[in-house]
Structure formats: structure tokens, C-alpha cells
Design goal:
Number of helices: 9
Helix content: over 70%
Oligomer: single chain
Radius of gyration: 19 Å
Number of strands: 0
Number of domains: 1
Order of helices and strands: HHHHHHHHH
Shape: globular
Length: about 240
């Protein structure tokens, strides 16, 4: 009689609904307060853009810089916001001050990944504006948000990132990745990430689509960086 269940049997047994949902619900219990605080800050920024002239001018200046930089700006900003800022946060706060070759490689990988995500996100926002128009009417915002959260996020958003990280963990082997990635893998890997993602990004996405398309990418990049810092801080606290 074996002492433990074979890993292959564990990986291939059917996943229950509770196993799929519980990790996300546990994450939400830990993260709901910082999520709400960031969402309130995002709401204040949107209100400021429409009703506070100084905020409007600052946002329009940022929009001008982004327009001049194009896709290169989007790739660079997201690489820094999603790949570099979290690592600087770890270093400054003392969570991780190692400067090993492995860590430098991980940072480079994360920056490349988020740079690609930035290009995809900007393309998606432009496509939504082309399809529905650059309007913040409630029906337009709702349509964009539904496609964003229930089509783009499970595929190019969370799914794209999960596949690339699996590719790295498989030592960049396409053969191993293709053998690993399946519907079962997607359900087990991406499924638990979606509830906390939706809890954070449905309110943030609503605010994002209320803004003009020229500001949507920048707002999304700030939201991404803030969320990453929350994840790191909570994970560090739990380890301690």
C-alpha cells in the first residue's frame, strides 16, 4: 500500500467546484480592504478628471505624452509598472534584497511579459473604442466591461500570463508546455485566479471605461501596479 497518492492521479482526478472556488474566496477575504481602498482612489481620480480643472490638465498632459510615445510608451510603462516596481518595492521594504542571477533573470522575464501585456491592452482599448465609440454612456461602458472581464481577461489577461509563466517553469520548452496545457490545466490554474481578479477589476474597469480612451491605458497600468504591490505585501505578511 503506497504511503501517498500518486501525483499523476491527483493531477488527473476531477476537480470539485469547491476546490475551484475556495482559493479565490480565501484570497478575497485577505485582499478586500486594500482592493476597496484602491478602487476609492481610482474613483476620486475619475471624479477629479471631470470636475477639478487642475486634475483635468494633468491627465491631459499624460494623455499627450502617451499619444506621442505610442506603443513603445505602453510597453515601457507596463514593463516598469508590472515588472520592475514590485521588485523595487520588495527591495526597499526589505522583503527581498537579494541580487542573484536568478532574480535578475526573473525580473527581466516579468518586464518582458508585462511589456507584451501593455501592447495587448492598448490594442484592446483601441479596438473597444473603434467598435463601440469613445463614449462613457452607461450601455457603452457596460458592453466594454463585459467583453473585457469575461472574454479578454480569462484568455489574454490571466490566461496569457499563466501560460507564459508555465513556459518559463518548463525551462522554455515548447514541447513540454504543449503537453501540459489543456482544458484541465486551464481550469485548475486560471480558474482560481478569476474571482479575485473580477472583484478588483470589475469596479476598476468601470472607472477605466468612464475615462476617455486616451487615458484608459495609463489608468489600467496604475491599477495593475497597485494590485501587484498589494499581493506582495499580503504574501510577505502571511509568510512572517
Amino acid at each position: 500500500m503506497p504511503d501517498s497518492i500518486d501525483d499523476h492521479q491527483i493531477a488527473n482526478r476531477p476537480i470539485t467546484l469547491n476546490e475551484l472556488i475556495q482559493p479565490g474566496m480565501d484570497a478575497l477575504r485577505r485582499l478586500w480592504l486594500p482592493f476597496v481602498l484602491i478602487q476609492l482612489c481610482g474613483c476620486a481620480l475619475v471624479v477629479g478628471y471631470y470636475f477639478v480643472p487642475s486634475v483635468t490638465r494633468a491627465c491631459e498632459w499624460v494623455a499627450g505624452v502617451k499619444a506621442a510615445g505610442g506603443y513603445a510608451f505602453c510597453a515601457g510603462v507596463m514593463a516598469v509598472a508590472g515588472g520592475l516596481v514590485p521588485e523595487l518595492f520588495k527591495y526597499v521594504t526589505g522583503i527581498d534584497r537579494s541580487l542573484t542571477r536568478v532574480r535578475m533573470s526573473n525580473i527581466a522575464f516579468a518586464m518582458c511579459l508585462f511589456a507584451c501585456s501593455g501592447v495587448l491592452a492598448e490594442t484592446f482599448y483601441r479596438l473597444m473604442a473603434w467598435t463601440f465609440g469613445d463614449s462613457n454612456a452607461p450601455d457603452i461602458v457596460a458592453s466594454k466591461l463585459a467583453i473585457d472581464q469575461f472574454v479578454y481577461t480569462p484568455t489574454f489577461g490571466v490566461g496569457f500570463v499563466a501560460i507564459l509563466y508555465a513556459f518559463r517553469l518548463d525551462n522554455y520548452s515548447v514541447r513540454v508546455l504543449l503537453r501540459q496545457v489543456s482544458v484541465r490545466w486551464y481550469v485548475r490554474t486560471v480558474g482560481p485566479m478569476l474571482p479575485p481578479c473580477w472583484a478588483y477589476w470589475i469596479p476598476m474597469g468601470t472607472l477605466l471605461y468612464i475615462l476617455p480612451v486616451s487615458l484608459q491605458f495609463v489608468f489600467g497600468a496604475i491599477g495593475t501596479s497597485a494590485a501587484n504591490l498589494i499581493f506582495i505585501a499580503v504574501a510577505s505578511r502571511e509568510r512572517k
